Amino acid sequence: MHGNSTQPDISLLERWSEALATAQFQASHISLDALINTLAPAAERSFQRLIQALFRESLLDPNTLTYDEHGHCSLTLPCRAQLRFEHLRPGRMASWDLRGEVVLLREGQTDQKIQFPSQLLTLLNASLTSPADLEVLNRLNVEIDDSFINDTLCLAFHEQWTLKLHASMDPVHQGNLLSHLKNSSGATNPTSVLEQWGTLGHPWHPNYKTKLGLNTEQVINYSPEFEARFPVLLCALHRQFAHVETLAGTADYWQWWSKHFPQAAQQLTATLHAQGLEAGDYLPLPSHPWQARQELPQLFADAIGDKLLVLTDIVAFTAHPTMSFRTVLPEGRCDAPMVKLPVSLRLTSVQRTVSPRSARMGPRISHLLLTILEREPAIGKILSIVPERIGVHFKPIPANDEHSRHLAVLYRDNPHSQLKPGEMAVPVGSLFAIDQHGQPLLRQWVRLSQGQDDAAAMLAFFHDYAAISVQALLGMYLRYGVAFEAHQQNSFMVMAADGQLSRLLLRDFGDIRIDRKTLHAHGLDIELHDPKMTLYDDAGFVRDKLLHTVFMCHLGELILLAARHFDIPQALLWNELSAQVSQCFDDLRAQVEPQRWAAEREALLEQPWPAKSFMRMRLLESHADIVGRLPNPLSAAANAD
């Protein structure tokens, strides 16, 4: 496990030394100089998320900032020292654009450049509306420095990977990675490449690369951004202690599993027979290697002793992790199911297990969504889903969901199964990743679809993008009360054969929220695992999911990216989104109960929006969401700015 932020420079050098010794870094010819060159961009990314979170969550007061004639921004600390930001500007959605260096100025002392996020947070702590005590501050410092150091490794690897991809391109693609992946016979699964190459982490979270509990080699071996490949190990779970949930029309689990992984299925049968066990009494359960070796032997010692759980060394398949660290694709294939595995580690800031609720509700929610899309061909043209087909979890007697979440699996279909010939599913998160020219991948798609990549082309592209996203996601919400968790990581924008935007493709329904009354009004219902989850009577709680994931972390962040890299005033893009939202409400007015229509329109276009308070949650050790409010970037007041 890594380090102590009381000496972040020592921890950084130790981690770099460990990374440089790994096979992946040596194969990519990554040098110490390459890592040193990541310090400035990694600090900028880390500081931006930290400062933005503190201002956005009202932990810091932006009115305490002052600007000089050169545009430099300063913040006076209680100790009378000053923090000077080379470039720090507010934007809509309570966003903050930080670029360049952050320097500490003390009277009579040499200016000190701030290098680590822990240094910045420690300096700012006394200025916070709720300062952290020493224990909490130390814990947060370890987390944010871990994220920062991991990001330096990520940036160095990403640069070399980008150059390697560029070198492999046919000149006909003119350096356009999307064109190359879509049309090159060498790219067997373009979506999988983009999932890994484009993994950046949460756009708001100060802990966007935190992976506490893993050493440096494990971070590199298991994380998608390092082009990871690792063996997933196979366990066997006794049928009487397993719950299997399947999507309607799916074959028997053993039969389905044997079809997809025939060699591992045969090996498991032979291994069980060799132990004097009846193979038919057990079900296959793949396990992340970290989970199989570090967690299961201790957490499930009794079940292992009673032969209810059998651990083996059989390799179920070689995993290619996706943007979601614990969701993997066997061999990177286009015809294999995606496999979501529990990993009992705190990644970002949450333990990434697979709850019995997710295992059961995934197939049930998928069935409901497919039913709705079949009823709504107009929405079906611009929205597809990746169904969650089979969920399996340990079922002890009595039930214990907190224990069972560490021994489960959820299978979903491959995104490729939802594509027509010539189409490509582009993970939305990858559009934010930087190419060999220091530009976001977004620019390449704009150029591919519009023929050029200037501000006018970006505006036209965003018009098409918002038309699909708003009509699909807001349309489903207004008609059926379904609020998808459609942030960047869970969303694909499908590229048509001609390079144009086609439709949205969504995955992962674990945290979907549905308005009970609106769904029931259509004669639809769903069997619940937890009566307090999935279906809700609080319209505001459901709406917050839509606003936070779709309008802020997805569309809002896309606007900020476009404004920064295409030199477009933010207002033009926010106005376009506002117009699309208004149009969607107008189009659906006759299909939505009048009082709800008016309330939802007011909430989306005028009232303050929810802001998930990641720093407050960490300060308070809260596992429940803490949600603040921020000015609505689509409102008339925002347009008047």
TrEMBL record:
Domain spans labelled Aerobactin siderophore biosynthesis IucA/IucC N-terminal: 194-433
A Pfam short name: FhuF
GO biological process: siderophore biosynthetic process
Domain of life: Bacteria
InterPro entries in UniProt: Aerobactin_biosyn_IucA/IucC_N, IucA/IucC-like_C, LucA/IucC-like
Domain Aerobactin siderophore biosynthesis IucA/IucC-like C-terminal span(s) in chain numbering: 460-621
GO molecular function, one term: acid-amino acid ligase activity
PANTHER family: L-2,3-DIAMINOPROPANOATE--CITRATE LIGASE (PTHR34384)
Family: Belongs to the IucA/IucC family.
Protein name: Siderophore synthetase
Source organism of the structure: Pseudomonas paralactis
Species classification: Bacteria, Pseudomonadati, Pseudomonadota, Gammaproteobacteria, Pseudomonadales
